[in-house]
Amino acid sequence: MPQVPREQLTGAEQTNTPAPESSATVALRVASARATQLQRQGCANARLNTTQVKQACKLGEDQIKLMNTAVERLELSARAYHRVLKVARTIADLDQTKTLEERHLTEALGYRLL
After folding, report:
1. What is the Cα–Cα distance from 23 to 114, expressed in whole angstroms?
2. CA 99, CA 74: separation in Å to the nearest integer?
3. Domains of the chain: which residue ranges?
4. pLDDT tens-digit profile of 53-98?
5. What is the DSSP secondary-structure string of 9-64?
6. DSSP string of 80-97, one letter each residue
7. Is the pTM of this model over 0.85?
8. Do the Cβ atoms of 67 and 111 come closer than 8 Å?
């Protein structure tokens, strides 16, 4: 078997990938997300207490199942569970979505594993 070219493995040859955001664009998204957080709950997501997390991070049935599985498999403590929710809420804010979606939770869990 011939060796697969590195560019093909890494996807570097794909031309349909979106261009990276400029620093100014990212800064605007971060400022917007922070303003959303302050307007919604009066503080940054990182500063939320347990009660506030439950209010800001309402989960649907599928998200609850996902988080239950994550708690079991990753042996998350209550503190770690709430931290994942806060990070997921921030990801959703950066994504400018009002509700938490599974993709926000999985991204936050991925950061937890790093």
Report:
1. 24
2. 24
3. 45-114
4. 999 999 999 999 999 999 999 999 999 999 999 999 999 999 999 9
5. HHTTT-S-SPPPPPHHHHHHHHHHHHHHHHHHHSS-GGG--HHHHHHHS---HHHH
6. HHHHHHHHHHHHHHHTT-
7. no
8. no
